[in-house]
Amino acid sequence: MTTTPISSIDLFASALHIHSDGDVRVAERRMTGSDSGAWQIATFHVETDADVHADHWEMHPEAEEAVCCLTGGVRLYFRPAGAGGAEDMVQLQAGTAVIVPRGRWHRLELDAPSDLMSITLRHGTRLEKRTDTR
C-alpha cells in the first residue's frame, strides 16, 4: 500500500516510477540509467531539436520504449543496422506512438514544438554522440 499523499502530480516536472512490486512513486526524471529497477513514465515539453538531444543516439538495452507524441509532431529515426545503410524513420503526430525495440539505437527531431511522453526501463540506457550529423 502506498504512503504517498493523494494529490496531483506535475508530469512535466517529475516522473512516475512503476516498480515490480506494484508501487508507483513520484521521482526525478532521468534520461540515463537508474538503479531503481523501475519503469519510468516521463513527459516533456520540447521546443527545439536540442531539447530532444537530436545530436545523440539513445539505446535502452533492457526494455522496449514507448515514445508518445501528445501534441505537435516529431520524427523518430532508427540507426542503420549495417554500415552504409539508411536510417529508418517513423513520423509521429499528436495522439500517436511508436514502440522502440529493446537495444535499438534511436533519436528524435522535431517538426513543431511538442509534448512527448516516454515509457521505459531506464537501467543501462546509453547515449552516443552522432558522428553523421548533416
Compute the number of helices. Answer: 0
Uncertain segments of ≥5 residues (pLDDT<50)?
A: none
Number of strands: 9
Q: Could you tell me the mean pLDDT?
A: 89
CATH class group:
Mainly Beta
Q: Strand count, sense and closure of the main sheet?
A: 7 strands, antiparallel
Helical content class: under 10%
Question: Can you describe what's shown?
Answer:
With 134 residues, this protein is mainly beta. The chain has one domain: Jelly Rolls, CATH 2.60.120.10. Helix content is 0%, strand content 49%. It contains no helices and nine strands. The strands form two sheets. Strands 1, 2, 3, 5, 6, 7 and 8 form a seven-stranded antiparallel β-sheet that branches. It has a two-stranded antiparallel sheet with strand order 4-9. A hairpin with a 5-residue loop joins strand 1 (15-18) and strand 2. The model has no long low-confidence stretch (mean pLDDT 89).
Quick structural gist:
The chain has no helices and 9 strands. The radius of gyration is 15 Å and the shape is globular.
Helices and strands in order:
Blueprint: E1 15-18, E2 24-27, E3 39-46, E4 56-59, E5 65-78, E6 88-93, E7 96-100, E8 106-121, E9 126-129
Antiparallel strand pairs: 1-2, 1-3, 3-8, 4-9, 5-6, 5-7, 5-8
Describe the structure using short key phrases.
two-stranded antiparallel ribbon, Jelly Rolls, mainly beta
